[in-house]
Amino acid sequence: MTVLRRPPLSRAARKEERTAWVFLLPWFVGMAGVTLGPMIASLYFSMTDYNLLSSPQWVGFENYAKMLDDPRLRQSLSVTFLYVVLSVPLLLAVALALAMVLNRGIKGLAFYRSVYYLPSLLGASVAVGILWRQVFGTEGLVNKFLGLFGVQGPGWISNPDTALYSLVVLHVWTFGSSMVIFLAGLRQIPEQYYEAAALDGAGRRHQFRHVTLPLLTPIIFFNLVLQVISSFQSFTQAFVVSGGTGGPSDSTLFYSLYLYDEGFGRLHMGYASAMAWLLVVIVGFLTAINFYFSKRWVFYGDGK
Amino acid sequence: MTPLKAAAPAPSPAPAPAAHRHRRAARIRARLKHVVLIAFGLVMVYPLLWMIASSIKPDALIFRDPSLLPTKTDFSHYADGWNALSHPFGLYLLNSAIVVLGALLGNLVSCSMAAYAFARLKFRGRAFFFGMMMLTLMVPVYVLIIPQYVMFSKIEWVNTFLPLIVPKFLATDAFFIFLMVQFFRGLPTELDEAAKIDGAGYWRIYFRILLPISLPALATTAIFTFIWTWNDFLSQLIYLTKPELQTAPVALRNYVDATSGASWGSLFAMSVITLIPVFIVFLVGQRYLVKGIATTGMK
Fold first, then answer.
1. How confident is the model over A90-105, as a mean pLDDT?
2. Per-residue model confidence (pLDDT) at position B119
3. Does residue A300 form part of some domain?
4. How far apart, in whole angstroms, are the C-alpha atoms of residue A13 and residue A8?
5. Domain shared by A276 and A244, yes or no
6. Where are the domains of chain B?
7. According to a count of CB atoms within 10 Å of the terminal CB, is the N or C end of chain A lower?
8. Is A117 among the domain residues?
9. Complex-level ipTM
10. Averaged pLDDT for residues A129-134
């Protein structure tokens, strides 16, 4: 009979709703003022000629048309694509391999995990960018190491043919966070599956191929999508390693770097905004492609 | 009395040494694995250790001698680097600390409030707004940074810390809302019900019940906010152009330009100093960092 003593539901519900709005107030203000509003403004700027000092001049799709024959834009796109295509698969492969090794009841797991994870926390910092300029410099660690085998390495960062690879290596060096996600995924695979496979006479390689890999595909996919989205937007390291120029000869002119240069270097705010929207389209497209092909290889279990 | 033994294939070619050999092979394999893992780990951290070692070597030795144990030490790089720019490096560290603490407080307050509403309260449009919040996770920062810059320069917030701190009080880091929503959803609703029966209002439930037991989620948020904001470069680069307002990463970058590599020793010394706070947070918060990244995929 407690039902009778409850206050009318509608009033309580209204109070709950009012409270929810109050709790969400900061988020609403942020959503409108710092996210949605600026997004709409960005769309508008992308169709104007705007240098921040005088008011924006409407030019329609001119900025987008200009992108079609902008050699630096093409260069920045190919640099960024090459960077993503080289570093992401390599990073994920290393991360998965080490997660596999560490997963098998190894002693000192916490220690190894920390050592491998640390670079992914420091990797985005300016300090590590500065370090990298030296590691891959003419007299840097890499060439000192090659010297042990009598190989005279090039000045990796001053050479347009190799500068990008030093940044790829830097990115792969930060595989630790992906490795931790893989480790968490591996832990989810029930031990019985392996026992059953072993009873059927499956060796380690078979177990990996038929138990681990299929069950891990959702995690691999998750890591892949995440890495593609974030690597496509890398900025700090290219900026620091190339001294802010994307050099030598635009060989490290990442898309984000070119966008920064157009927007904040030359105050072409309209063109930079158009570039930002092209980035949205590209990242969205890559993510969609990823999802499309995922149907062929990602295994969610139970008939799906 | 030993049927198992009887069932074994045959007594002939001594089974004991075979098992023994097998076990020894496994032990060698395990040991080999550790050797490879340690070697690989050493390669991973070598550049960092080398940077630390180089920061206390005389300049002339940095490139001639790549070993980690300096034969001669020289701590003057720290003093030189500290005073190399227009202000002592301590000021840049202080600026970084202000920005980081502001962002940290902002994220903790605003994201936990939004997460409480999304996870525990019923209101019209909840699914819609939640979806909208999740969508903002995918918006590239470059779409926002130009119009935000225009806006903040219009209200003359450029060259103040406000553009770096105020948005954090408006729950703009959707990652953390999501993280806390997941955490709150994992807590039994009986907690809220029981508190309600005891006469507690929503604010009390949020403040006195949910927040205290959500310490792991709050710690994860705090740690990631700390590290990301400390390392953040782009937004600090565009909003803080006055030397006396610059943060440590921006100052460090300018130092590269200013010296054009003249003294790598002092450049490394200041680099080491800017990495120390991240390293300390890493040591203190490791447990939460690993858990946070494993559940949400944040870096």
1. 92
2. 95
3. no
4. 9
5. yes
6. 76-297
7. N
8. yes
9. 0.91
10. 93
**How does residue B298 score in pLDDT terms, banded at 50, 70 and 90?**
low
CB pair distance less than 8 Å for A121 and B282: yes
B76-297 — its CATH code?
1.10.3720.10
A120 shares its domain with A202: yes
Nearest C-alpha in A relative to B37: A112
Chain B positions in Cβ-Cβ contact with residue A102 (cut-off 8 Å): 37
Query: What pLDDT does residue B1 have?
Result: 38
Task: Give the best residue of B27, B133, B137, B146 to mutate against chain A (max A CB count within 10 A).
Answer: B146
Whether A76 and A198 map to the same domain: the answer is yes
Q: Which residue among A20, A42, A108 places its CB closest to the CB of B121?
A: A20
**Nearest by CB: A180 against B33, B141, B293:** B293
pLDDT for res B16: 61
Task: Out of A34, A101, A120, name the one closest to residue B148 (CB).
Answer: A34
